Amino acid sequence: MSEANFVDYVKIYCRSGKGGRGSSHFRREKYVPKGGPDGGDGGEGGDIILRGNRNYWTLLHLRYERHIMAEHGEGGSRRNSSGKMGQSKVIEVPCGTVVYDAHTGEYICDITDHGEEYVLLKGGRGGRGNTHFKTSTNQAPRYSQPGEPFEERWIILELKLLADVGLVGFPNAGKSTLLSVVSAAKPKIANYPFTTLKPNLGIVSYRDNQSFVMADIPGIIEGASEGKGLGIRFLRHIERNSLLLFVIPADTNDIKSEFEILLNELTQYNPELADKKRVLAISKTDLLDDELMHAIAEDLPEIPYVFISAVTTLGLSALKDLLWKELNKDEVKVKVKVRESDTDRDSLIHRNLDIKTVVFDEEEDTPEQGDNDDFDDDEDDDYSFY
């Protein structure tokens, strides 16, 4: 998938359907004098529904569908006939999509599972016909209820990739090369900074037909939290990861200092990332001998580490073993299990979006109120009296 096709931010306008109005009709039939009211109810308007779909990986399919509107309910008619209900509109989104209000940045919902649905906008209820208002003292009511109006809002859909292990490192640290070797992913690899412009996912095979998902995000530099380089645009893709794998090349002057810089940028973006399990991988170790490796190991951060080389495959088996061991520790399992509940999921993601940091090329273009109207409000209002 090219960089242009990876879309993780979309701003769209949604509008539910309005309810049809009830009918104020009276029964008119030969040899049936004073037939009485028989106006039917209006149909309910369609809903706007979000549904998780694991077959989607990005929000590309919504990039050019900026106005999504459900159908309106039709008005009631004679003989107590109810109006047709408006068809709901289902928006398919990839798993891991977070929804915010586009004007206030308020968190709305989080779609994480395949088939999970959330009613974003409820359609208006249909009005009741004059049949419901007849009484012993008012046997010929000449009024009915109008349908409820539709709901509308601009929303922002934000994709946060679901993965077990997230790769974190500076540009040209060897993250994309590592992902291409341990999985079937084919990220762009070149000898210049910021080769990776979009996140990449890869499935890493392990023993006994087991596997885990690894995510690679564009490189982070010092000051990314202030907007330098690619900034913090892609850091949200590692918020859901169970484990963070820091990749630092062996030819770095001070490995411990670079690790602290990366960790600081993560905590500046989201302090909760400091609580995630961390593993350190020293890449490009084909340039070192055993003596240099021993010297470097004496001044590393106090977290699990391993020396690797994606070119010679040195240490890759040990890295997989270490990642699998850390992923299956009890505390990691508990965090993953609790995160599936609404309470912990909200504590992780229920942070309002800063609208000032989100830039869109297009201006808002709210459809006119009459757009996509499937019926005229007065179409089925039959005020026929005998």
Description:
The protein is α/β, with parallel strands linked by helices and 386 residues long. The chain has six helices and 14 strands. It has helices spanning 175-182, 255-269, 290-297, 316-327, 330-339, 342-349; strands spanning 9-15, 48-52, 67-69, 89-93, 97-101, 107-111, 117-121, 152-159, 165-168, 200-205, 211-216, 243-249, 277-283, 305-307. A six-stranded mixed β-sheet has the order 10-11-9-12-13-14, sandwiched between helices. The longest helix is centred in the C-terminal third of the chain and has 15 residues, at 255-269. The relative contact order is 0.16. Residues 332-349 and 374-386 have low confidence and may be disordered.
Tags for this entry?
disordered C terminus, six-stranded mixed β-sheet, elongated, alpha/beta, 16% helix, five-stranded mixed β-sheet
Give the quaternary arrangement of the chains: single chain
Number of helices: 6
Radius of gyration: 29 Å
Structural class: alpha/beta
Shape: elongated
